[in-house]
Amino acid sequence: MKTRVTEISDVEGLRDAIQRHEAALLSGDNSKIAGTVAFPHVQFLPDGRAEVYQRPTDLPDRGEASPEWRVSNSSLVGHEKDLAIVRACFEGTGQRDGADLGAGLWCFSLRDGEWLVNWRHYIGLNANQ
């Protein structure tokens, strides 16, 4: 009998992959980010645009400012054998500490035993209401 997977912790290695991806994004270091995503990598934006990054060198410059956000909660939206979609809720840090910064979807695929982000979709600021 097949057990239904409903929690991130039910998917081996997924929680660690989420944390590694968040840490890489917060670092602003594109080489760290590239180590957590699959290429081509797609970023869907709330205005309907999609950015496609074919290789690590295509990732946008993150600038020098420290990001002022963190993942406050994550939940499993769907899971198949080698695919998992996670909803990440974001909150502010620093001067925006605790502010609701919306949510996004991160689609992970299992490649050579490692969960990597195929695409991300930032839903927007009002996604947690």
Keywords:
129 residues; single chain; Nuclear Transport Factor 2, Chain: A; 6-stranded mixed β-sheet; mainly beta
What does this protein structure show overall?
The chain is mostly beta strands. The protein has one domain (8-55, 66-124): Roll (Nuclear Transport Factor 2, Chain: A), CATH 3.10.450.50. The protein is 15% helix and 44% strand. It is built from 2 helices and 6 strands, in the order H-H-E-E-E-E-E-E. The chain has helices at residues 14-27, 30-34; strands at 37-44, 50-53, 69-80, 83-92, 100-111, 114-124. It has a 6-stranded mixed beta sheet, covered by helices on one side. A hairpin with a 2-residue loop joins strand 3 (69-80) and strand 4. The chain starts with 13 loop residues before the first helix and ends in a 5-residue tail after the last strand.
TL;DR of this structure?
With 129 residues, the chain is mainly beta. It is built from 2 helices and 6 strands, in the order ααββββββ.
Largest sheet, if any? Answer: 6 strands, mixed
Share of helix, binned: 10-25%
SS class? mainly beta
Q: In CATH, what is the class? A: Alpha Beta
The beta-strand count equals 6
**Which architecture would the CATH scheme give at its second level?**
Roll
Assembly of the depicted chains? single chain
Mean of the pLDDT scores? 91
The CATH topology is Nuclear Transport Factor 2, Chain: A
